[in-house]
C-alpha cells in the first residue's frame, strides 16, 4: 500500500517549530511523484497600490502551521489518498516583470508535465496569467472560478498590458478561458466608469457582485456553478480581497463590503465534484497583516482547495 506524506503533527514538533513548509508537509525538489504541489510565487512587482505580496508565500506557510489533516466539516481526508508536498518558490526576476511572467509560465509547464495539480501561494494577481497560459497548453481553455473584489480586466494600467489588474483581460484575449464557463464572485467598490463590469458580461462571464452575496448562503450559487462548469477542467483563483477587510485586512487594494469568511469557505467547498486542475490564493500582503489572520485565511482556503480536488476521499 502506498504511503502518503502527512503534515507534521503538533505532538511530534511544536507547531511553532521546524521549517515553515505549507501545512508542515515535506519539502520536495520538484513535482515529480506528487499528485498535488504547493508552490509559492513571491512577487509584488505588478501591484498598483500597497506592495508586500512578495512576502505572501512565506507568511501563508507560517500561518498554515495550525492546519490539521482532516476537514471536520466536509470529512475530506486529502492526505489519505493523494501525495502532497511543498516544492518551494518560483525563482522570479524581481527586477523584470515580462521576464518574470515567462519564468512563471515555464515553471508551471514543468510542473504540469508530472500530472501534478498545482496549488499556488501568491504573490500578486498577475501570477495567474502565466499559470493559465501553462494550463491552457495542457488542458485547453479552462473554466474559471474567480473570487475577487475586482474584475482584473483592465485593458492597460499606466499604459502597461501586464499588471495585477489585467490578467483576465489578457487571458480572455489569448483564448485561455473556456467560453461561457467563467464566473467572477465578490466584485464591488468604485470604478472608472459605471460600465466597468460590463466588458466581463459581454464576454459571457457570469458576474456575481458582492451585493448579490450579502446576507446569503452561497451554496445555491455554487450549485449553479457546478452545472455551468460540467466536466470542463476548472481553475480556481481566489484573491483574498474578495473577502471583507474586517476578516482579511492584509492586502493591497482593499474594498469595503466583501464576502464573509464563511462565504469564502462555501465557494471553495461548493467546487467539490468539479474537474479542478489547479488553484491559487493571491494578494496576501504581510506588512498590512499584523495579526497574521489574512495569511491564515489564505492558508485555510488553500487547504479547502486541496480538500475538493479530484481523488480526495471523504470519511463519511
Ligand atoms: Mn485580483
Ligand atoms: Mn482584488
From TrEMBL:
EC annotation from Swiss-Prot or TrEMBL: 3.5.3.11
UniProt GO MF annotations: agmatinase activity
Gene3D superfamilies assigned to the protein according to its UniProt record, in alphabetical order: Ureohydrolase domain
PROSITE patterns: ARGINASE_1, ARGINASE_2
Top-rank taxon, per record: Bacteria
UniProt keywords, alphabetically: Hydrolase, Metal-binding
Pfam families from the UniProt entry: Arginase (PF00491)
Protein family according to the UniProt entry: Belongs to the arginase family. Agmatinase subfamily.
Protein name: Agmatinase
Species, as recorded: Billgrantia antri
